[in-house]
Amino acid sequence: MIEPELISFNTDDHFMREALRQARKAARQDEVPIGAVIVHQGNIIARAWNQVETLKDATAHAEMLALTQAESAMEDWRLNECDLYVTKEPCPMCAGAIVHCRIRRVIFGCPDVKGGAAGGFWNLLQAPNLNHSCEITSGVLGDECVHVLKEFFAEARKRKQDGLVHIKGAANLLQNGNATIFDGP
To answer: Which residues contact 166 (CB under 8 A, 6 or more apart)?
Structure first.
């Protein structure tokens, strides 16, 4: 008798797909499509997407929001038994928070060679002078993560060329009822 192959939901690909779902939520709200999930003992304890424009908060990156949720779920700021999955390499702000929360492992999809802080430009997650170092895994579903970002910015540029009103964030869409775009950095 042939044994059926077991499907594992406890893989990097599985959790990155969950982060991609969060990134797509961000895109639907005219936010830069980056998503994050935090996993503890094989269970997702936090999910978030970028909400900078919606919340009018420069610190409302997917990673930062997910860290806050995870701290609440764990009832502790120390997340040393947790892994963070994020669709794009963390920026310096997020990397600093990740180190301070003592995340065990950071898994990201696509690199950010201009401003990434997990090895793309800097590597704050493994800086020898800091009190904690994270394991890093890069490139998980990288092509899909890049595609979500490229598609978002291509649509934004097209809408801008078509002369649509430039209003950022889902909150503005709801208040004004106008077409919105976010053309990014």
So the answer is: 160, 180, 181, 183
Give the per-residue pLDDT at 165.
Answer: 60
CA 39 to chain centre: 13
Per the annotation, the verdict on 31 as an active-site residue is no
**Residue 26: what residue type?**
A
pTM of the model: 0.85
Cβ(66)–Cβ(87) below 8 Å: no
Write the pLDDT tens digit of every residue in 121-131: 999 999 999 99
Residue type, 92: P
Rounded CA gap, 68 and 23, in Å? 18
Read out DSSP for 43-98?
Answer: EEEEEEE--HHHHT-TT--HHHHHHHHHHHHHTSS--TTEEEEEEEPPPHHHHHHH
Q: Which residue in 53, 63, 71, 89 is the catalytic one? A: 63
Q: Which amino acid is at 161?
A: Q
Sheet containing strand 135-138, edge to edge, reads: 43-49, 35-40, 82-88, 105-110, 135-138
Per-residue pLDDT tens digits for 43-80: 999 999 999 999 999 999 999 999 999 999 999 999 99
